[in-house]
Automatic annotation (TrEMBL):
The modification N6-acetyllysine is found at K636. Belongs to the ATP-dependent AMP-binding enzyme family. The lineage of its organism: Bacteria, Bacillati, Actinomycetota, Actinomycetes, Micrococcales. It holds the Pfam family ACAS_N. InterPro entries: Ac_CoA_lig (IPR011904), ACAS_N (IPR032387), AMP-bd_C (IPR025110), AMP-bd_C_sf (IPR045851), AMP-binding_CS (IPR020845), AMP-dep_synth/lig_dom (IPR000873), ANL_N_sf (IPR042099). It comes from Branchiibius hedensis. Transmembrane segments: none annotated. It catalyses: acetate + ATP + CoA = acetyl-CoA + AMP + diphosphate. This is Acetyl-coenzyme A synthetase.
Length: 674
């Protein structure tokens, strides 16, 4: 297969293949195509002429989208100012307020009684529906509560909450007063929270006593207590009472309900410049230190709303939309909070896991609320596939008319299952490629317009320009692979890395000068569809969550018993990739490990240590105690070889190793274990 050969020059910087030959040949044989249903097309928000309009006059296209989809308190002049590239200014001089666009204007238009959120708590029957008018009342009070605590326009507010309506209210309250929020996923540890709070210099944290997880209350506040002790910029902690569990109380703490009750019910939205920071969201990169990705107001909100309309095909009057992401990730920001609410949609907000109290919970919720648009991640689809189609088949899923996928490549097998079992063989699937940095969807089919190709994210949405290039930055022909890049500025693009302009330039704009390099490898098929193959840097994708190998390695080496560590993402049938760690122990710890390769309690101790340092999501699936790590003569760890071990494969070419016997040593040390 010639195409595989053409991929190798674009392999990982360390010479590691970005995709296995097996995966690639499976992909190349995938030629099923699903043309749009004319009845769907007749009602679709997305139309073929959007591509033409955008190609003819990109700036004019975005200006028109911005003026029709958003409400501006002051109109903008220039559409795009790229004179200080790579820091863009979109909709120059325009002023608006994101919370006003997401809530007030729908109430003003007479839709105050429309349900904004059908909240479904994890405990069964813990359900409540919140209208746009109710949301507006809460957002105003919460905004005033923040002001009462001294939060001013421009101050950062950290948010560490479970998936409860207060999370949505908190974000919109920040936006209402122009205080950028920095949400930290509730699954991150107190150490991770502390470093993100400190980097963002957040004044206030909004948290909860806890949330429900698999039938039990799970505490959140203790992590916040730990994260704000000692030298911390945090002056106040607002605490939502969710579970009612006992919590320690400090001088900094205020109950959310008390603060809202005491607050003035009216709070005028603060009009901010189009480029005013809306939020920071930390994401893992190739170094140990997470980056605070900065998004601003006008361009971000526009692209979130536009894509939610043309890609998810949300019709706010009739649809019930559900995105299963957590607000702690960018998907929750763009496709739970900003996009759907800017469009005035009705959505489900679910607190729990898909299998509590039973494995049909998601499908039961779809049946109950007649969910018509469902957006989730391939890892979840594969898990449900493993549980069997008998489970979803017990529920009435006939309300579903659009399905979405995000976070990692969806393998054709999972695509077909999703299409047939959940979508009754007719709901179009949109496989949406984007990143924390891109802010909103960049590559996706438009349902009703594009013929669908299972496994491919397909083409850039109208107004966006992406390409696949070779090492020298030249566009590759159809049928070849390379690096996925974005070659024209886009409205929701990141405006920087918080407090580190140089890092922003070095990370995204240096590989191909003037061009945004996303970090993914991709291939163009004969029809020009883009197949995203995965990261080409040291970033792993576990269940659609981004983790840095270096960050986990640093966490492991911070343990007193670990001398050296190497982490790789090994292919996993369900989670896409899984964290596998190889560790060399310090002299005195070696005896403690029961036997080489095993380590028993020590392995548990190290896994827990990673959970404590970063969060349970980063816990290695496997930790292998080894005597040596494979290194090149210049001392670089050859992760490719470790991945071969982790994936139980024949170890590849070892000729560049400083000591070629190391792999034999590792393998013999590990033999005897499963
Ligand atoms: C990375 C970004 C997009 C929000 C959730 C993750 C991978 C994302 C797809 C897709 C193949 C995908 C990429 C990307 N990715 N969507 N549809 N097909 N890969 O956001 O944590 O910033 O991760 O997720 O590798 O670079 P994120």
């Amino acid at each position: 297969m010639g195409a595989i050969g053409t991929l190798s020059p674009y392999a990982r910087p360390k010479g590691e293949a970005i995709v296995s030959e097996e995966t690639l040949s499976n992909l190349l044989h995938e030629d099923r195509s699903f043309p749009p249903d004319p009845a769907f097309a007749a009602q679709a928000n997305g139309t073929a002429d959007l591509y033409e309009q955008a190609d003819a006059d990109r700036d004019g296209f975005w200006a028109q989208q911005a003026r029709t989809r958003l409400t501006w308190s002051k109109d903008f002049g220039q559409v795009l100012d790229w004179s200080e590239a790579p820091v863009a200014k979109w909709f120059v001089g325009g002023e608006l307020n994101a919370a006003y666009n997401c809530v007030d204007r729908h109430v003003e238009a007479g839709n105050g009684d429309r349900v904004a959120l059908h909240f479904v708590g994890e405990p069964q029957d813990d359900t409540r529906s919140i209208t746009y008018a109710e949301l507006l009342a809460d957002v105003q009070k919460a905004a005033n509560a923040l002001k009462d605590l001294g939060v001013q326009t421009g101050d950062r507010v950290a948010v560490y909450l479970p998936m409860i309506p207060e999370a949505v209210v908190a974000l919109l309250a920040c936006a209402r007063i122009g205080a950028p929020h920095s949400v930290v996923f509730g699954g991150f540890s107190s150490d991770a929270l502390r470093s993100r709070i400190s980097d963002a210099d957040a004044k206030v944290v909004i948290t909860a006593d806890g949330g429900y997880r698999r039938g039990k209350p799970s505490a959140l506040k203790p992590a916040v207590d730990e994260a704000v002790t000692g030298d911390s910029p945090v002056e106040h902690v607002l605490v939502v009472r969710r579970t009612g569990q006992d919590v320690a109380w400090t001088d900094k703490d205020i109950w959310w309900h008390d603060a809202l009750e005491a607050a003035d019910p009216e709070c005028a939205p603060v009009p901010v410049d189009s480029e005013h920071p809306l939020f920071l969201l930390y994401t893992s990169g190739t170094t140990g230190k997470p980056k605070g990705i900065l998004h601003t107001t006008g361009g971000y909100l526009l692209q979130a709303a536009y894509t939610n309309s043309v890609v998810h095909d949300v019709h706010p009057e009739t649809d019930v939309y559900w995105c299963t992401a957590d607000v702690g990730w960018v998907t929750g920001h763009s496709y739970i909070v900003y996009g759907p609410l800017a469009n005035g949609a009705t959505q489900v907000l679910y607190e729990g896991t898909p299998d509590t109290p039973h494995k049909g919970r998601w499908w039961e919720i779809i049946e109950q609320f007649k969910v018509s648009i469902f957006y989730t991640a391939p890892t979840a689809i594969r898990t449900c596939m493993k549980w069997g189609k008998e489970i979803p088949e017990k529920f009435d899923l006939s309300s579903i008319r659009v399905l979405g996928s995000v976070g990692e490549p969806i393998n054709p097998e999972a695509w077909i299952w999703y299409h047939d079992v959940i979508g009754a063989g007719k709901a179009p699937i949109v496989d949406t490629w984007w990143q924390t940095e891109t802010g909103a969807i960049m590559i996706s089919a438009l349902p009703g317009v594009t013929s669908l190709r299972p496994g491919s994210a397909q083409i850039a949405v109208p107004g966006i320009s992406v390409d696949v290039v070779d090492d020298a930055g030249n566009s590759v022909p159809n049928g070849s692979g390379g690096y996925l890049i974005v070659d024209k500025p886009w409205p929701a693009m990141l405006r920087g890395v918080w407090g580190d302009l140089q890092r922003f330039k070095d990370t995204y704009w240096a590989r191909f000068p003037g061009i945004y390099f996303a970090g993914d490898g991709a291939k163009k098929d004969e029809d020009g569809n883009i197949w995203v193959l995965g990261r080409v840097d040291d970033v792993m994708n576990v269940s659609g969550h981004r983790l840095s190998t270096t960050e986990i390695e640093s966490a492991l080496v911070s343990h007193p018993k670990v001398a050296e560590a190497a982490v790789v993402g090994a292919t996993d049938d369900t989670t896409g990739q899984a964290v596998c760690a190889f560790v060399i122990l310090r002299g005195d710890a070696v005896q403690e490990a029961d036997e080489p390769g095993e380590g028993g309690d020590l392995v548990t101790e190290l896994r827990n240590h990673v959970a404590k340092e970063i969060g349970p999501i980063a816990k290695p699936r496997q930790i292998m105690v080894v005597a040596e790590l494979p290194k090149t003569r210049s001392g670089k760890i050859m992760r490719r070889l470790l991945r071969d071990v982790a994936e139980n494969r024949e170890v590849g070419d070892v000729t560049t190793l400083a000591d070629s016997s190391v792999m034999d040593l590792i393998k013999s040390g590990l033999s005897g274990k499963d």
